[in-house]
Description:
Elements: H1 2-19, E1 23-24, E2 26-34, E3 37-47, E4 50-52, E5 56-61, E6 64-73, E7 82-92, E8 99-105, E9 111-120
Parallel strand pairs: 1-9, 2-9, 6-8
Antiparallel strand pairs: 2-3, 3-7, 4-6, 5-6, 8-9
Amino acid sequence: xxxxxxxxxxxxxxxxxxxxxxxxxxxxxxxxxxxxxxxxxxxxxxxxxxxxxxxxxxxxxxxxxxxxxxxxxxxxxxxxxxxxxxxxxxxxxxxxxxxxxxxxxxxxxxxxxxxxxxxxxxxxxxxxxxxxxxxxx
Length: 137
């Protein structure tokens, strides 16, 4: 009986892991700065010891650009606490791109958060990430 229970648990664990939903990308915003680049920003629920790397174009499929954002571990030992992780960066994309499909990768390369949306035109509130001024306190 004990072996049957262990076998059942081992069969269910992979299924439960696959059933986990990816974290959504909150406040996903992409706006065209010039014909060859966009400003990309979003927030997701990630680990307290995660830091986002530079966004990279994975591939282009028609008018949609797939973008990956890797994460790096900032500590060897960390709590499993979830926190809001902010990302803002510039991405070089083809002029014909009108949509984005963004995936955040954990340090081992697994997708942990994802979202998609349209690339909006350049407007006065479409500033490069380094030009954004924090709100006064």
